[in-house]
Amino acid sequence: MTYTLFATCSTLAVLAPSQAHAQLSIMGVLDTRAPFTPVQKKTSPVLASPELQQKSKPKTQLPTNSNEVAPSSNSDKSSISADELGYSKDLGVLTARGNVEIVYKERILVADTVSYNQNKDVVTASGNVQLIEPDGNVLLSEYMEISSDLKHGIARQMVLNLANSSLIRAKEGEKDGRFTVIKDAEYSACKKCEDDPERPLLWKLSAKEVKHDSKLQRIEYSDVFFEVLDVPILYTPIFWHADPSKKRETGFLFPSYGSQGTLGSYVNTPFFWNINPSKDLTVNPTWYFDDNQPLLELEYRQALRNGDLRLSGSATYIKEGGRGQSSGNTGNEIRGHIDSEGQFDINNTWRWGFEINAASDDTYTRRYGFNDNTENAQLISQLYTEGFRKRNYTTLNLSTYQEQRDIKSETLQDSKLEYLFSHMSQPSKSGSYWKMDGTMMHISHRNDVRTSRLAADTSWVVPYTSNTGDLITLEANLISAGYYTSESNAASSTSIKSGSDAQFVPSLSLEWRKPVSRTHMDGKVNEVLEPIFKVKAAPNVGQRDFLNEDSQDFEFDDTNIFKTKRFTGLDRIDGGHRIDYGLNWGAYGNEGGYSLFTIAQSYRLRDDKTYSSNSGHEDNLSDIVGRIDVAPTNFLNVLYRYRLDKDELTLNRSETSLTIGPSSSRMSISHLYVEGAGGGSQYATREEISTSIENQWSKNWSSNAYSTYRMNSPEGNVNYGARVTYEDDCSAVYLDFRRSFAEDRDLTPDDTFSLRFELKSLGDFGVF
């Protein structure tokens, strides 16, 4: 029964597809492009050239009474212009020759010669005929007979040029109001080869009859063959897809077939339901053949007057012994996830929103290839409101966390309630300004430890530029914070005191910079030398007993050595007196090339435990940090960031990257080395090298490859992969290979192959 159901769905998807203007479907799919606006075609010189319109040719307003020549009764919206105009009263025929242009309401007819028979109310056009529709489609022909309202007629040797430049070619067609019926027609987005017009198109649809419905914005085919280089590949008695002017259409999307790592072979047949212009639903069922395992994914989207809503999720049922089971489960199991979000305006100042990211277990989203909105380390759900007014910002956020890593630590956060307020004043006449960040935070941990904090970070900044080019910045800062920690029975938290605590840390800093420049090579190169010196005075702080919630991610490097507050949060503060000094040097070429060099060091008057071991500043004198960035041309870029041991000048941290080659053939290699944090930290020494190569072999062919190799223990490959791409004006082919060596419970190293074909204007589909 299950196989029959999926076979039926797959057949329907092939027999009754309808493209939705994005390149992922043949029956309507979500489209995020800007609304379509018809544009004038380059094939319409009369309309596009102001010079032609300004010629001294006669421009006639069509007559309005029965004794005069009038193509329609709505002549106030009709006009005709041409190089020559003639009228025969006896025959009741108006003749126009040379750059003829007839405008009737929103339709335009262009031709070399046009005659209008008043008695029969028929317009006959010949020679480079173009009928431009309101939706942007253009009907091209050598001969056309059409009614005066330009809605009903026949055309010979015709081409229907759709809004996305796709073409329908035929010997004859008939236009009847909203319908254009074309016999023995061909549809394709491929252009004819200019050097060899007789060369077969890469792909096309050949049909006995094609009907274009301008009201439903649909193109319908009867007895249609899909041909590649004029060779029939697939036949179906009926077929339809939305025309390019329609964004979305209800129907089956292209099915996909393939193999997904350890899950084995699969097939999916997604269905898109265009409920109305503001809401839609995508249903994507997948069947894994090797384990007879179903998976269902749903996504609902709605655009509201005051915001947007997206609800998405998936679920699967795994029988006992199936390969899709989570770690440790041996019986029947249901696995799934939720990935939803929404954001809504309250007024011009306030808005609120939510994000829900949750899974049945820790490895589900990675195993089944779902790209959640958060990092793999945690799934984060939150409910928030925020306001913006002038130079003020405030937000209230409730977050919960679902850990995805295999970590048993009881100190991990479960939830956080946080209020933030930020203000920056208008600069005074002297340029000074105030800035203030206030926070109120409550955090719950797995071990039932609860911490609360109320803090404010206030600064007064006075920038000054002297007449000699000295850049001087004075900053007075005050950090005040109060903490409360509940009692904990967890052994990992015995060093944390329960109860309340507080700290008040004022500081005063003065920074001096003196950029000096000179030119070389007759002004082609500008050299800038900038010494930097900064003094900060503050009371000694050291490490406190309360938990460090927001300042764990600290890296001492060239980006933060001159900052007044080096830590990312307020739970750790680098107090005490210190001196920072360094040098910036740069050479900048007029054609865009540059070379940059930075070196800096810091000295603290008092040694304390503010910084952890191996952080680079655990002693009075810090490690030496800096950066070298060289890019003399667009073909070469070298970046080297380093942290040298202050005593032995050995590397404690380094980042090196080299990019070489033009955009058509570019190679990159990077190396990362980070010494372990020590002191029982979970962050061990890390060293790895990454490479990538991109090549544009020709106009249509390109490739790229990448790899990452871990050089520390355990040594070995992290991942590697490659892609080969063919792309032209009407199609694309993508061949991918990826190898992942990640191991985490039920996740094991696996290989992934994928081959996808894209038929532009119809959609794309995967083979494996």
Characterise the protein shown here.
The protein is mostly beta strands and 768 residues long. 3% of the residues lie in helices and 55% in strands. It is built from four helices and 43 strands. The strands form two sheets. It has a 30-stranded antiparallel beta sheet that branches. Strands 1, 2, 3, 4, 5, 6, 7, 8, 9, 10, 11, 12 and 13 form a 13-stranded antiparallel beta sheet that branches. The longest helix is centred in the N-terminal third of the chain and has 14 residues. The chain starts with a helix and ends with a strand. The N terminus is likely disordered.
Average pLDDT confidence is 82
Number of strands: 43
N-to-C CA distance: 24 Å
Global shape = globular
Task: Please give the largest β-sheet.
Answer: 30 strands, antiparallel
- Work out the oligomeric state of the chains in this entry: single chain
By secondary-structure content and strand pairing, the structural class works out as mainly beta
Uncertain segments are 1-76, 490-494
User: What share of residues is helical?
Assistant: under 10%
Number of helices: 4
Rg on CA atoms, Å: 35 Å
Sheet-strand content, in percent, reads: over 45%
Key structural traits:
13-stranded antiparallel β-sheet; globular; 4 helices; disordered N terminus; 768 residues; 43 strands; 30-stranded antiparallel β-sheet; mainly beta
Q: Outline of this structure?
A:
With 768 residues, this protein is mainly β. Helices cover 3% and strands 55% of the residues.
Strand-helix topology:
Elements: H1 2-15, H2 45-48, H3 50-53, E1 59-61, E2 78-81, E3 84-88, E4 93-104, E5 107-117, E6 122-132, E7 138-147, E8 152-161, E9 167-176, E10 179-188, E11 203-213, E12 218-228, E13 231-242, E14 251-252, E15 256-259, E16 265-268, E17 271-276, E18 279-288, E19 293-304, E20 307-318, E21 333-345, E22 350-359, H4 364-367, E23 378-389, E24 392-403, E25 413-424, E26 433-445, E27 450-465, E28 471-485, E29 499-513, E30 516-520, E31 525-537, E32 578-589, E33 594-604, E34 624-633, E35 636-644, E36 651-660, E37 665-674, E38 686-696, E39 701-710, E40 716-727, E41 731-740, E42 750-759, E43 763-766
Antiparallel strand pairs: 1-2, 2-4, 3-4, 4-5, 5-6, 6-7, 7-8, 8-9, 9-10, 10-11, 11-12, 12-13, 14-17, 15-16, 16-18, 17-18, 18-19, 19-20, 20-21, 21-22, 22-23, 23-24, 24-25, 25-26, 26-27, 27-28, 28-29, 29-31, 30-31, 31-32, 32-33, 33-34, 34-35, 35-36, 36-37, 37-38, 38-39, 39-40, 40-41, 41-42, ...
